[in-house]
Design a protein that fits this description.
Number of helices: 29
Structural class: alpha/beta
Distance between the termini: 56 Å
Largest sheet: 8 strands, mixed
Shape: elongated
Strand order of the largest sheet: 3-6-2-1-9-11-12-10
Length: 812
């Protein structure tokens, strides 16, 4: 048999209950199954509050009771088919009538005894299991409801309900002996004493119920279904990248739980542990995830340290005095008085001189501990051989758990280094006697930061943090931010690179946050008043420099002369540059040389793959060919994706001007499309390629055959479009003449024998240029090793392509 326990979040609503039904249906196909369920989320707390309200004479308890009933009836109406809904409603209604009578008696008597409170809160599990039974039966699944008040017997011992294991085991075995029943439903948390009065099993009571039943029937496995994927290497609310622990031993799991991990409760799973029953912790809302398997001897893992947990609200008790040196019995007397007053000791550390002793306890017990300890040592205190007990509050304990911790060298040192690097002081440190944990005490204010630091040291590969400063938030800038946002997690996991956008600026505004900008904050840069003064990119660079962050990258997404003029200054400050701005690499040769020299001298990167061909690997391929000992003889290329789009799309059916406007709207052209059509952009790209071949050249050395008449280059962009519409016959005749000759028009670059030509030409349909469509560029590199040409073909324009090329350069 197998036992499946579902917590409050798993039965908290219609959707989650349907998930429970699916999980159980699959489980019953494998084995006979006992389902133990908690009350729906928040129900137990609500019932407790209702009982207190009634005891205080607050008639408002009736509203709370009515609201709780409606919540359960709403679940029934959502998951139970119409034909079965009446029966289910009556079942829940009867239970609520019973509950109402119990609460009403409390209201009239103004008295709430422990036994009556237990009876009232027990209804939560009765409600949830009644709904489950009705849902299974309405689905044609036969099941049997087991009243755990009839099988789990308790007795009042040491101030709490204690399970009579011998009687309980006998009762469980008798209740589940029917071999023909495939599915049993049992409420968790509730039991009864020998008089038959309802009792409850306390914190984690439903886990306890499940573990008791699993032990009694010698279950094959105990599954605990909750709202997390299993036991984690740390609390995911503190450490977002905490990972699920796939396998862990009983002792390690108990150590993690003792120090704060809330997935399981140490005392409640003991029956299953004693019987060596494997425990599988799984997520109801992600049932296909592996979860955590807890067993006696889990498989060996490469990292023997399993997880990290902690708890706040810790008080430190310091006992010291010369009388303690060489005098036995002080420790035992202190431990004894704390135990007699139900004060649990969480951690102990003692100086080797036996002159001082430090004990960690729960903060709420601090004052009581001082009072009883000072009373026990009153004589020693009066003789000044022992100081009065000192109580310090505001501390937290963090415990690192794993197998054979005592023999894992350097563990404590790494904890000190991780916390010290964040400026966190460790107040005390101790090795657990089980050799399963190393625990430290830190100030509560430092708790979460310390957890993150220690988790990063032991469970996360060292990550290289790349700090990005983006200039320009137009089409390319927006696409780059979006692609970084989408790929950030993958890049961090696969490449150990953390990409943090620290600053961004446009022509009107600058936003900087040294800890990183979220995507919504970045989008806010688009909102500015038209009256705002023009932003100064030099001031942006000053701010970047003043932060002094390692691995800073200035990403230029503009086409600005002003920004490119700052490159040398940026590089001199040891800030890397990634750019799609072609101006710097196509400016005069002296400036070009100074930029590359500055990057080399300061040992920083200057990456500009997107200067030619957007995301196509044109420049990197040229570098690779030359570095491999080959010699490039010629390059033919259509390097403008925008012009390729325009010329491949134009066939005379729509005006040439409308095709150009379409390309501009798609982000293929520069903001002023004349930059593309006049060939200036292509001329810059050709110059950059020439320089990549190791040749010294200026823009005047690039032979340009104009495509547009000079008069179209003047005036506004709107005037330019109007003028083109008037010249439509000119463009149509160019197209018709080429088509009649069975050729196609392309705007190309030809680099050969120190002569570089740029212009419009007519090419045979067999030529590589004529095979491209849309924004696809064709680059053919002829070399000694590739005499027939090495071809690079793909989109040479587009904001996403450019953004991906920039991201690739950033990662490089």
């Amino acid at each position: 048999m197998q036992v499946l326990k579902f917590g409050g979040s798993s039965v908290g609503g219609a959707e989650s209950i349907n998930k429970v039904i699916n999980i159980v249906n699959k489980a019953t196909k494998k084995d006979r199954t006992v389902v133990v369920a908690s009350a729906i989320n928040g129900c137990t707390d609500t019932l407790t509050e209702i009982a207190k309200q009634a005891a205080q004479g607050d008639i408002l308890y009736q509203e709370a009771l009515s609201s709780l009933k409606e919540k359960h009836l709403s679940i029934i109406s959502s998951i139970i088919p119409t034909d079965f809904r009446k029966s289910a409603g009556e079942s829940i209604g009867n239970l609520f009538e019973e509950l109402a009578l119990s609460v009403q008696s409390v209201y009239h008597l103004r008295e709430l005894s422990l036994s009556v409170c237990d009876r009232i809160v027990s209804f939560g599990e009765l409600f949830s299991t009644a709904i489950l039974v009705e849902k299974f039966r309405s689905s044609g699944v036969q099941c049997k409801w087991i009243d755990t008040r009839q099988i789990i017997r308790t007795a009042w011992k040491r101030g709490k309900n204690t399970v009579d294991m011998e009687t309980t085991i006998h009762n469980v075995q008798a209740a589940l002996k029917e071999k023909t029943t495939r599915l049993y439903i049992a409420p968790g948390f509730i039991a009864a004493n020998e008089s038959g009065a309802t009792t409850t099993l306390g914190r984690g009571g439903s886990d306890y119920t499940a573990a008791i039943i699993a032990s009694a029937i010698e279950a094959r496995i105990l599954e605990i279904w909750t709202d997390v994927d299993g036991m984690m290497t740390a609390d995911p609310r503190i450490v977002p990248d905490a990972r699920t622990i796939s396998h862990i031993s009983y002792k390690e799991a108990l150590e993690l739980s003792h120090f704060g991990a809330k997935v399981i409760f140490p005392s409640t799973i003991q029956p299953a542990v004693r019987s060596n029953i494997p425990i599988l912790v799984k997520n109801t809302f992600a049932p296909n995830n592996a979860g955590t398997r807890i067993e006696k001897n889990p498989p060996e893992a490469s990292n023997r340290i399993k997880g990290l947990s902690g708890t706040k609200r810790i008080a430190l008790l310091s006992m010291e005095g010369n009388g303690m040196i060489g005098a036995p019995g002080y420790s035992s007397r202190l431990f004894d008085v704390l135990a007699r007053n139900n004060i649990d000791i969480i951690l102990i550390t003692q100086a080797s001189s036996v002159h001082t002793m430090l004990i960690a306890i729960a903060e709420e017990d601090g004052q009581k501990a001082k009072e009883v300890a000072d009373e026990v040592f009153a004589y020693e205190i009066s003789q000044k051989t022992v100081e009065p007990l000192k109580v310090e509050t505001g501390y937290a304990i963090i415990s690192l758990v794993g197998n054979d911790m005592a023999n894992q060298s350097g563990t404590a040192a790494r904890m000190f280094e991780a916390t010290g690097g964040r400026g966190i002081n460790i107040r005390a440190i101790a090795n657990g006697s089980s050799e399963k944990n190393v625990s430290t005490v830190v100030a509560s204010a430092d708790f979460e930061e310390a957890i993150r630091a220690i988790h990063g040291e032991f469970f996360v590969k060292p990550v290289n943090h790349i700090n990005l400063f983006i200039a320009g938030y137009g089409n390319v800038g927006k696409s780059l931010v979006e692609v970084i946002h989408r790929r950030r997690k993958v890049i961090e996991i696969e490449m150990n690179l953390s990409l943090n956008i620290i600053g961004i600026c446009n022509s009107k505004k600058t936003i900087i946050n040294p800890t990183g900008l979220d995507i919504e904050t970045i989008k806010g840069i688009s909102s500015f008043s038209k009256k705002e003064a023009r932003n100064d990119p030099a001031a942006f660079v000053e701010k970047i420099s003043s932060l002094g962050l390692k691995n800073s990258v200035f990403v230029d997404c503009t086409s600005s002369f002003e920004v490119s003029a700052l490159y040398r200054d940026i590089l001199s400050r040891k800030i890397n540059i990634v750019t799609c701005n072609k101006i710097a690499n196509s400016s005069d040769m002296d400036f070009y040389k100074s930029i590359h020299c500055e990057a080399k001298q300061n040992d920083v990167f200057f990456r500009y793959e997107t200067n030619v061909g957007a995301g196509l690997p044109v420049i990197s391929t040229i570098k690779q060919i030359l570095n491999s000992g080959d010699n490039i003889n010629r390059i033919e290329a259509t390097l403008s994706g925008s012009l390729n789009y325009i010329f491949s799309k134009y066939d005379g059916s729509s005006s040439f001007a409308s095709i150009v406007r379409e390309a501009q709207n798609l982000g293929y052209t520069e903001p002023d499309p004349r930059t593309d059509l006049c060939g200036l952009d292509l001329q810059r790209k050709a110059l950059i390629l020439v320089r990549e071949l190791g040749l010294e050249a200026e823009m005047k050395d690039i032979q340009m055959t104009p495509f547009l008449p000079e008069r179209l280059l003047n005036g506004s962009v709107d005037e330019f479009y109007n003028a083109m519409e008037k010249m439509e016959n000119y463009f149509r005749q160019l197209y018709i003449k080429a088509a009649n000759d069975k050729k196609r028009i392309a705007f190309g670059v030809d680099i050969a024998e120190n002569i570089t030509q740029v212009g419009v030409g007519k090419f045979d349909l067999s030529h590589p240029f004529t095979s491209s469509t849309g924004t696809d560029c064709v680059i053919v590199i002829y070399s000694d090793f590739y005499p027939n040409g090495l071809r690079i073909v793909g989109a040479g324009a587009g904001t996403w392509q450019t953004a991906s090329g920039l991201l690739h350069n950033i990662i490089q």
